[in-house]
Structure formats: C-alpha cells, structure tokens
Protein 1
Amino acid sequence: MKKKEISEKFIGMKGNNFISKFYTKKIKKSFQSSVKTIFNNKYFWEIRLDNGENIQAKSIILTCPFPQLKKIAGKYLEKKISNLKINMEPNITTMLAFKNQRTVPVSSIKFNDDILTWAANENSKNRFNSSNSLWTLQSSIGWARKNINHYKKSNKAENILVSKFLNLTGYKKNKIIFKKTHGWKYSYNLNGSPLKSYWNKKLRLGLCADWFIGPKVENAWLSAKDLAKKIK
Ligand SMILES: Cc1cc2nc3c(=O)[nH]c(=O)nc-3n(C[C@H](O)[C@H](O)[C@H](O)COP(=O)(O)OP(=O)(O)OC[C@H]3O[C@@H](n4cnc5c(N)ncnc54)[C@H](O)[C@@H]3O)c2cc1C
C-alpha cells in the first residue's frame, strides 16, 4: 500500500456543510422545496417552488449542477454558458458501521479497483467519539454510470460495493451493524470549464458552483468568491 504524505486537511467539525451553515447563520433560509421555474418580469425575479409557493427577488444566484441549471434557467443563459461542455459524473456512496473492529491509523484508503475506488475512515475525522468503526465507501465513476439509475430498486449495488470493501480490507460481514447507500447523479465535473462563475448585471442573475472549476468543495468556494467579486 502506498502512503500519501500530504497531511494538511480541512474537516468540517460538525459535518461537511459546517462552513456554509456558519456563514449563513444570519440569513433567512428555506431548504425543503426545490425551484420549479424562474421568471424575470423585467423588474424582478419570480421564483416558483414545488410546494406552490412564489418568491420575488431582486437578484438570483443559482448553484445547482449544470444539467439542472439548464433546466431551470435555460432561456436566460447566454450561449457561452449553455454551450459549455460540462460532464457531470455520478457517484454511489455507502456508509458502513462495524462493531468491534480494530481501528486503523489512516484517514482514507484508495483502491485500485473497477468498482470501489475510495473509502474514508470517518473515525479519523474526530467529529465525535464512537466505539464503532465508521467507513464511507465511494464507487468508481464507471461503475456508478452503470448503476446510478437503478441502485435504489434493490440491494444489489449496495451489496457489491460492500463485498468489495470486505474482500479488500478483511473486515467481517457479520460485524456490520449499519449500512446506508446514497447516489448522486451529477456529483462531479472532473475537468472544470473556461469560466469561474457568471454574473449577468442586467438580469441580476449569478451562477457559481464547483463544476465551473473542478470536483472539490474548494472549487465551489473559489467560484463563489469569483462571483462575489463580479457583483461588487
Ligand atoms: C459523495 C461525495 C463525497 C464528496 N467528498 C468530498 C470531499 O471529501 N472533499 C471535497 O472537497 N469535496 C467532496 N465532494 C464534492 C463536494 O461535495 C462538492 O464539490 C460541493 O458540495 C459543491 O458545492 P456546490 O455548492 O457547488 O454544489 P452542491 O453542494 O452540489 O449544491 C447544489 C445544490 O443545488 C440543489 N439543487 C439542485 N437543483 C435544485 C432545484 N431545482 N431547486 C433547489 N435546489 C436545487 C441541490 O439539492 C444541492 O443542494 C464530494 C461529493 C460527493 C457527491
């Protein structure tokens, strides 16, 4: 096994969205409904949510993945945005908890495997104390592409991912006390784009998201910073 020596890591102490929660503490938020349509009536934006609610706004900033952006805002996008070649790749992830397994002194393991490519050791993040061994498994992109549309219909995909982890690590199946699988259809854009963000001053429409720059959370941060600079 090759050990990666770079040791600097940033970990949201109370979860991956801790930074966003911290910075939006004083802002009124609503999370429970998705945006169905947006309409610019020349004076302001009208935003229709899937619960039927309508919101009026002077400006709008969209951060959703590229395919969802085109769906919601398609008619307001300039060609330089709508013609971007953005390939959002899927990802299937399984969270696992084992009882009575020995702890390992690594934060994650990369596997050279067609199905399972990465496993994060959640205990190493020191977010909370747990006597169980907690792992998050991430599938390869190629395997996720084949399974993303039907992984919810049965446990087959989950079982394959878990068996891979057990075979590669020697962890015992009968020690599993919890497992849960999630899928993201548009999780990563590995290649970025020629832009960092987008601001249409006339429409007061802003776009920022990780996919402008790359696949990581810092790319989302950099894109948002770039948009903030443009708006100012
Ligand atoms: C399984 C997994 C593990 C990851 N692990 C890491 C990691 O360890 N380190 C790292 O740096 N990065 C990691 N990433 C990447 C990181 O999560 C992203 O880079 C980051 O979340 C991107 O932020 P964003 O704000 O651009 O987009 P997102 O976080 O994707 O936010 C976009 C939001 O838009 C919402 N949305 C979409 N359509 C609508 C609609 N119609 N109405 C309302 N809302 C809508 C979505 O629900 C979503 O909440 C991981 C990603 C995945 C999928």
Protein 2
Amino acid sequence: MTTTIALAGKGGTGKTTLAALLMRYLTTHHRGSSILAIDADPSSNLHLALGLPNPRSVGEIREEMLALSSSGTVGVGIARRDYLNSEVRMAVEEGDTVDLLAMGRPEGQGCYCSVNHLLRQIVDDLGHGYDYVVMDNEAGMEHLSRRTTENVDWLLMVTDTSQRGIQAAKTMAELARTLAIRVRNVGLVLNRAPAILPEATVAAIAQTGLPLWAQIPDDPLVTEFDGLGRPLAGLPADAPVVRAVERLAAGVLKI
Ligand SMILES: Nc1ncnc2c1ncn2[C@@H]1O[C@H](COP(=O)(O)OP(=O)(O)OP(=O)(O)O)[C@@H](O)[C@H]1O
Ligand SMILES: [Mg+2]
C-alpha cells in the first residue's frame, strides 16, 4: 500500500521546505522504505532541497513525444504508451534514499488529452510501486486539479500566519473536495508560527473548519541551509523544524 502525501498552499509559505523535511523524516525513520518525491511545480526546485540533480520532466517528455508523433516516428496506441512509460521511468532521478520525478510545465491548450491521460496513468502506476509518495505542488491547485495523482491520503494545506495564507488554504481545501481526486484527509500546517499565536490567526484558523495539524517554528537553520544551497536532509536531528515535522509525521500522519 502506498501512502500519498501532497502539499499545497499559497506561494512561498514553505511547501517545498516541508516536503523536503517530510522526506528527511521518512528516510531516517523508515530506512529501507521506497520513497518517490514528485515535484509538481513547473519552476522545479525540490531537487535543490533534496540535493539531487534536476531531472528531465514529464512535460518535456510529452513535448518530445508530440514532436515525434507529428514527424511519424512514434505510432499510436500501444506504441505510444510503451514509449511514454519507458521515458517516464528513465526520467526518474534515483537518489540514495529518495527517487525524484519532476512534472514540469502542465500541458498547453490543445488536444493532448489522450497523451495526458496516458501520462497520468503512468505516473500513478509508478507511484504505486513505492511505499511513500510525497508531492510538492506549485502555489494554487493547478496540478491537483489536473489530477497529477489520483489518490491523496494526506493533503497538507501549508500556510503562514497571514490572513491571506489561511484564506487561500481554506479556498484550496474546498476546491480539492470538488475534484475527481480522492483526498482522504485535509488539514492545515501553520509554518513559521510563533510560540503564541495572535488572536486574529486563531480566529482565522477556526473559520477554515480545517484541523490544525502542526505548527512549525521559524528556524534560522533553514535560512542558513537554503542560503548555502545545502539539502535540508542534512539538518541536525534537534533542529526545531525537524522536531516539529516529526510530531506531525508520527503524531498526525501516523507514518
Ligand atoms: N520554518 C521555516 N523557517 C525558516 N525559513 C523557512 C521556513 N519555512 C520556509 N522557509 C523559507 O521560506 C522560503 C519559502 O519556502 P518554500 O520555498 O519552501 O515555499 P514554497 O511554498 O514552496 O514556495 P513556492 O510557492 O514558491 O513554491 C524559503 O526561502 C525557505 O527557506
Ligand atoms: Mg515550492
């Protein structure tokens, strides 16, 4: 059984940071498990937080395949599926502890429906081969609404303490419920949270109707690591963010 965790929320709230920290948690506490990180942000940067090279993206594979089809090099039906399947599998960047797949740019306008449908199935099948899939999204719901993955066990709506961030999390959580994807659990993760929350923040959180799954402190070590371009996997075990993500993962997500 695969456990799928997706992170969404307003821009710059800490989705990529928390995705990398969840991966750090999984690789230290579930050594031996297979983990697939999906970078569903077209301006791919999850690889930096993971310390991996930037992989060739699914978007690039789609563009290349469309170019090949129009030149008649790749056929239709089975041939297409086999081609895409092997290209996607080859594009997976295999790290020591985590594999990484980048989605790249979403499809443009036009009749690429059958190709996108195939790619969705291929990415889903690929995910089913792993114990854990962690999907970092761009700001907004683009990839979730394009159903980059079919089932999400835990949808983490990441926000800072701002009213706009919390409101965006609420709106996106509502949108997620209307989509064809199956989201089993949705909750808020309050990032860069002070020890004592301002009353207005508490009130805004209550208004979302979402459970508050975690409060992650602002951690100067994250700033330092990001400044140096060091992967967050290298953060010490006693770093406040590492501890807070541990509480989220073990206490709420039960992983
Ligand atoms: N808990 C934290 N403590 C300190 N700095 C943090 C923390 N969380 C995130 N940051 C910093 O905030 C910035 C934005 O974080 P991040 O890139 O993870 O956000 P994002 O939601 O993925 O952004 P985008 O929407 O652009 O993808 C980064 O510079 C990161 O170092
Ligand atoms: Mg990001």
Protein 3
Amino acid sequence: MPGVHGGHHGPVPMPPRRDDADAPFLPGAAAGVLPPAGEHGEPLGEPVLQTERVTFAYQDGTVALRDLSVAIRRGARLAILGANGSGKSTLFLTLNGILKPAQGRVLLGGAPVRYDRAGLNDLRRRVGLVFQDPDTQLFAASVRQDISFGPINLGLSDAEVRARVECAVADTQIEDLTDRPTHLLSYGQKKRVAIAGVLAMDPEVIIADEPTAGLDPEATARLLELLNRLHAMGRTICISTHDLELALAWADHTMVLRRGELAASGPPQDVLRMPEVVRGARLVQPIVLDTFARLVAAGVLAEDAPPPRTAAELVALIVAREPGSRNSGAPEVAAYNGSA
Ligand SMILES: Nc1ncnc2c1ncn2[C@@H]1O[C@H](COP(=O)(O)OP(=O)(O)OP(=O)(O)O)[C@@H](O)[C@H]1O
Ligand SMILES: [Mg+2]
C-alpha cells in the first residue's frame, strides 16, 4: 500500500439500528440521545466527515463494517474504541478513501466522496490519516524526504515545503532524526515521523489510528499536547485507542465499535461508565470511573455527581462535598491525607 503521501494525498440492550448518523446515543439511555458536547458542554459543529450506512467486506468475505453510520463533527476530539478486530482501522481506511464501501457512502463536508483521482486527492488533502502501522506509511529513504513528500506533491514552493517540514519536525520533536534512514528507526520513532508527515500536509481533519500505541509515556503526553494544540488551532481530530484513561481524559466524544457496528456513542465519562458497554467491547473501565462508581455506591458521593475524567477531578468532587451533608464526614475519605 502506498504511503499516505504517495497515495496522493441490569443488562443494557444493544441500540436499535439507526439511519441517522448524527445524534449520539447510549444504549439504554432514557431518551436515547445525548447531545454531542465540547469540553465545556458547548455543542460541536456540523459533521465534517461521515459514513452513511457503510458496509465493507474484505476480499475473503470478512465483513468488517456493518451498516455503520458515524459522524465526525467539526472541532471534535473524538476517540474510537473497540476490541481487536472490531473495525477501527477499516473505518479509518474507509474515511480516507483507501477502501471503498460496498454499500453506503462516505461524506466530506456533506458531499459524497468521489473515488476518481481528483476526488481522492481532495479527500486526502483535507483528511490526514496516520496509519496504525508506521511501516505502511513511511517509504522514503530519509526522514526529511518522507515528511517533504506530501508538501512537494501539493505543488508548494521549496521555501514553503521547508517551512512545513521544519514545523512538523518541531511539533513532533524529531529534530535529531531528520537525516536518518526511516527503516532504521525504532517503532515509536517511526510513529512520530508518520505523524509529522501528516502534519506537514496541514489537513483540516486528522484521523490517527492508535497514534500512541508503542509510544513511551513522555512521548504519549507530548503527542496529546500536540493534538490539543492542533485542536485549539481549529483542527478536527479523531483517534482510535485501546487506552481508556487517555480517551476519558482527552476526548470530548467517544464511539465504541463492536463487530463493525456502533455499540455506543457519547461523552467518554458517560460511555465508559456503562459496564455492559465496556465489557462488551472487551475493555476495562478506567480506574477513575471505577473508583467513582464505588464511592457513589458507598454513599460517599451523590448519585448525581458528575462523573470525573481525571483523578484530579475525582479528588475535587470528594473535597467539594457539602459540609453537613450526610456523607461529608465519611471516615474512609476524611482520614486520607496522602501520607497514610
Ligand atoms: N486485509 C484484510 N483481509 C481480510 N480481513 C481483514 C483484513 N484486514 C482486516 N480484516 C478483518 O476485518 C475485521 C476488522 O479489522 P480491523 O483491522 O479494522 O480491526 P481493528 O478494530 O482496527 O483491530 P485492532 O484493534 O487489532 O487494530 C477483523 O475481523 C479483521 O480480521
Ligand atoms: Mg486497527
């Protein structure tokens, strides 16, 4: 497969099958619909990239996506979760036009993607895909050449190409790698080079398939910072991940895939609270939410307390319990001062 540059750029029931890709839902949620919301609860923008009833089967007959309708909204920080083989990578390849659905459509900015050269060029200029496996993405001899390839293909001037490459290199902190042969890099280094190659294209939507897999914790933290910076600059970002703590802390919106279908969709702190959803996708509930649920069950926190996304938010909830409330003196919490 060509590189992205070379490609030119109680039990909860399963949700009913839906034609409407937009309205997020949680299985079993009363109204069935939760509004998509940004970090501060503001509604997200219109769908920028969507699948509409997409079914995709590989040549050997494996059906990887089944009648799947999902929408990535402008300005989203979306995390796609799901067990191995649930269809995440197939979805990403479909969103980037590398795979063409057997049924259904992919829409970019509301218009169906055209699978001729011009249509695919436009799609790949606007939607940058970071492949799960960096070896699929990297192909040029040196790191600098690899990152330059996309901008050169866009027909930019030499000066502009250089500026784009320098910027992407700085953003991914790979200054010390630029003259090295790509095939000699470590996995995590290749991963960062692959991300730099996509950044250099300056796409409005970035879809990254397990971008933090194989990165050390420091590199993961920096990548999240980078994704947040890109988000603050107006980019729409969609990642897949098996790291639920990351999804909980970082994403505004989460979708869970299960056998090529959408099993749940909504804010991560709501989706990941549902043990049925989490177990069904062969995931493990983030410890922050597990602890939160235990504190609610123990009566330490109120039933309607807002679910936390980080340990710091959980601590803030505990600290902020109303004085005089029946739980405020719960000894198991009050006694904890960090040194016990
Ligand atoms: N080239 C292929 N030919 C046949 N079947 C494939 C091919 N690629 C993927 N599949 C199958 O399609 C289904 C979805 O695979 P996909 O790679 O999209 O899952 P995933 O959610 O990305 O998994 P992972 O978490 O392991 O990356 C799986 O059943 C997989 O075996
Ligand atoms: Mg995958």
